Amino acid sequence: MIKAQTFIKPGMPDLRWLLVSLAAVMALHVSHLAIWVSLFIAAFGVWRYLIEKNGWQLPKLVILMPLTLLAGLGIMLTYKGLFGRDASVALLAIMLSLKLMETKKPRDYILLVFAGYFLTITAFLFNQSLLVGAFILLPVFGLTSTLIGVSHPNGDLGWRFQAKLAGSLLAQGIPVMLALFFLFPRVPGPLWGVPQDAYKSMTGLSDSMQPGNISQLSLSSAIAFRVQFKDEMPKNNQLYWRGPVLWHYDGRSWTMRSQNQRVVKEALQVQGSATNYTVTLEPHNRNWLLMLDMPESSPADTLMSSDLQVLSRDPVRTRIRYVGSSFLNYSLAAELNPRDRELALQLNDDENPRTFSLAKQWVDTKKTPEQIVQTALTMYREQPFAYTLRPPLLSRLSPVDDFLFNTRRGFCEHYASSFVFLMRAAGVPARVVTGYQGGEVNLIGNYLIVRQNDAHAWAEVWLQGRGWVRIDPTAAVSPERVESGIEAALPENDVLPMMSRRDFPLLRKLYLNWDAVNNGWNQYVLGYNQQRQMDLLSRLAGTQISWQDLVVAMMVSVGSIGLILSYFLLRGTRIKIDPLQRLYAEFLRKLEKAGLKRYKHEGPVDFCQRATKRLPAKASEIKQLTETYTRLRYGKQLNPTTLESFKQLVNAFKT
Amino acid sequence: MAKAFKLPDWKQWLRVAQPNNAPAILSRKHIYILPTRYGWLFLVVLLAMLLGSINYTLSLGFVLTFLLAGMGNMAMLHSWRNLVHLSVESVRAEPVFAGEDAVFDIRVTDSKPRPRYAVAAHFEPEKKTGKKVVAEPIYSDITAAGQVTLKLKLPTKKRGWLQAGRVTFFTEFPLSLFHVWAYVGLGNQNNRCLVYPHPALSSLPLPASAEQGAAGALDSKSGDDDFAGHRNYQYGDSPRRVDWKASSREQGLLTKQFQGEAQSTLWLDWSLTPGNDVEQRIRQLTRWVVDANTDRQSYGLRLPKLEIAPGTGEGHYRQCLQALALLEI
């Protein structure tokens, strides 16, 4: 409570609020700020606090100016520029902490609070998980409390009051927030270019394959996509999620063929019934959409390449959902055109001589292509090949030779790569397919979780009369990999991320629950885009709606929320009528019926005198009532017992 | 001339809550609201956040932006209800000497049981040519159904009645995003303050007392001997009589009073004041009245159309000063 006064500058309580809230904002960013930036910011916070506490002077411009330049230069050197996502956020954070050093007037505080709000929203560029979403409430609440504090002349409102008011202001903002969230017409972004580094943290399959990059991916338990099957889920060994198809081999790495519109799409013949499913794909900054082998058609707004990869028009940079329809029973490309055949047999024949001679040996014994495939698989099965995440390094000159005849320890990319090489050397058209294999069933949400460590590589060989046939050499070496997943297939001492192992059942169960919550969050909150908005609202409205309808609905609902809330806020607190007063009024009403009305200027005692004269018969009762009333009203004896006895007096009174 | 086209201030056409023999109530129709510059800035920040959310497809960005928008929207309502339904009444304004600030006691009562925070009031700033003078507002909190008395100051220059203009009440609580204001007229009774003339600074000695015919006894040293006590400092008291030791003990300004001062009767006569400057002569008379009162002399005042018989005491003093304040030549 303040006495009347003029505005004084914000003091310690305001600064404390501000520093705590800014610390909460920075906590959101600490994981992606360079360490020196975090330390710099923390040092400024402490410095500003000490200044206020000890009544020191704020630093002069001659000190702040070089520090500002230094900080800017530091950011430029650390992040190699000022304009990327990371650099901009770091710059904003550091400038905000510098501004703190000249903050003394309410104006400075308010500017910092607004900048704090803005810095809070930038946290979503890095992470939009449920936890981060819940955490941002903290800085937003703190910043709002700060704003309340500096809106008051001397800031001694008390932190409890400030916190309560900030909480209720934010809570009252929720209805408008919900209305706008659902109804504000969503525009598909981006509106302008986004910084190059904005998506650098996204992981996923690459458009090339070389030894090591899939096993690298296998160390990540990050989720690649989630799948909800419309009907029954296929068996694990049929869950081959088709990604990039690789044709070219340069002796080290496998790459895709050039995407050329003139290449005729391979003919697909399907049998049986389709498997329908919905995929929620995490952003991976690439174009391909993972589909179950073999997709018959591509989802809306996507393309299908000649080798049946499904590609989006733009790199997938937000979580997307698409509906897929695939056939597990198919035959692909009954005829192989000469151009494709040439591509599927391309090899550098000056490397890997031992592999070539082995292939030649098979061809010389007049084996059919089918027999060659079987022979190769038998070789993998019967020779001492091992499946491991930590294969030894292969020789640079003849890696396939080294792997097949020497080390014999490898991950799926080694098997796929050597197998395709062997096939090509034996004259059987073959190609590498990368993607994901298997996944984990989450019974809580009844969906399949596919992680980065389910990344896989297999082969397709073209056989006369059968077309492209999927062959998974890894399955020959380690049938568990395909039957039960990577956890079962790897030896115990190979390090897999914790969540991919199955040795902690309780933890796993908790994790699966948590993932089901996150899945809902992704689907319904983060995935709420233009299309889902239109779908949902059209379904609610029962008719197709346009964005103009949305604008009208938005305005109407925000307006009515405003009206309802103002009704509750403005009706004020009801004046509680004192029960004693009510009883006395009752007594007056009874006298009024007898024709005796109390004048406005008349006090109870004066009225009593007049009343006793007019109604001498009731004089003693009236006197007693009035005396009790005045005693209770002006004395200090009012309690439930005395009130009750007064009530009885009033009720008993009759004129 | 650009200045010639200066538009009149649009705020002069806004409604003013007027008291009708009762406290003026700031009802809904008297309340005006506009965003503050911080409010506009907040809007710009929100738009930037919205554009960012669209560009980067940040669903949670939308959530935060819309939450802050909803909160800002509510702040408008909170600010508005922080001011509406206050009742305002001017209680009194004690007379002051010209040059001092007139202090108007304004009683503000919450007519709805609702606590109010940081409600500010100021008089209409005086408009000087070219630039506007900003009046320093007085802030106050008011408890639910409670009451505060604000002391609003208005600078004085001339003697006579000082008519107070409308009072502006405003608040920007809770978020400084909206400026809510209302104007209140002070009615007819307590809306003016009597301003006494400024006492002349370089004084002539008090005129001779009529009976004794001797020179004024202001300096009589004999009178200074018997210290009788203190009274609160009044504007115009001789600095020689201020108890500086007491003031250094932070007891405020006290004027020493003495007994045994000459109890002669003085006639402070208009014709005794030198010069032709009416205001200067009035100021001289004022100085004499103040001095004579300080010295506890009995004095009468003789003005061109008015004569006040000799007397002493506060009432007499005030009467003389009022006559001087309202003197019209």
Secondary-structure class of chain B: alpha+beta
* Number of DSSP strand runs of chain A: 19
> What string gives the helices and strands of chain B in order?
EEEHHEEEEEEEEEEEHEEHEEH
Task: Report the count of strand segments of chain B.
Answer: 18
Calculate the terminal CA-CA distance of chain A, rounded to whole Å.
Answer: 50 Å
Structural class, from helix and strand content of chain A? alpha+beta
Q: Can you summarize the main beta sheet of chain B? A: 6 strands, mixed
As a percent range, the share of helical residues of chain B equals 10-25%
What fraction of the residues of chain B are assigned to beta strands by DSSP?
A: 25-35%
Distance between the termini of chain B: 40 Å
Mean pLDDT of chain A: 85
Regions with little confidence, pLDDT below 50 for 5+ residues of chain B: 210-224
The rounded Rg of chain A comes to: 38 Å
Overall geometry of chain B comes to elongated
Enumerate how many helices of chain A there are, as a single number: 24
- The shape of chain A, in one word, is elongated
Number of helices of chain B: 5
Q: Overall mean pLDDT score of chain B?
A: 81
User: What oligomeric state do these chains adopt?
Assistant: heterodimer
Rg on CA atoms of chain B, Å: 28 Å
Description of the molecule:
The complex is a heterodimer of chains A (655) and B (329). Chain A is an alpha+beta fold and 655 residues long. Chain A is built from 24 helices and 19 strands. In chain A, a hairpin with a 4-residue loop joins strand 3 and strand 4 (254-256). The radius of gyration of chain A is 38 Å and the shape is elongated. The two termini of chain A are 50 Å apart. With 329 residues, chain B is α+β, with helices and mostly antiparallel strands. Chain B has helices at residues 37-55, 59-83, 244-248, 278-294, 314-326; strands spanning 16-17, 24-25, 32-35, 86-93, 96-97, 101-110, 116-123, 138-142, 147-155, 160-163, 167-171, 178-184, 192-196, 226-232, 254-259, 265-269, 298-303, 306-311. In chain B, strand 17 (298-303) and strand 18 form a beta hairpin. Chains A and B meet through helix 5, helix 7, helix 8 and helix 20 of A and helix 1, helix 2, strand 8 and strand 9 of B.
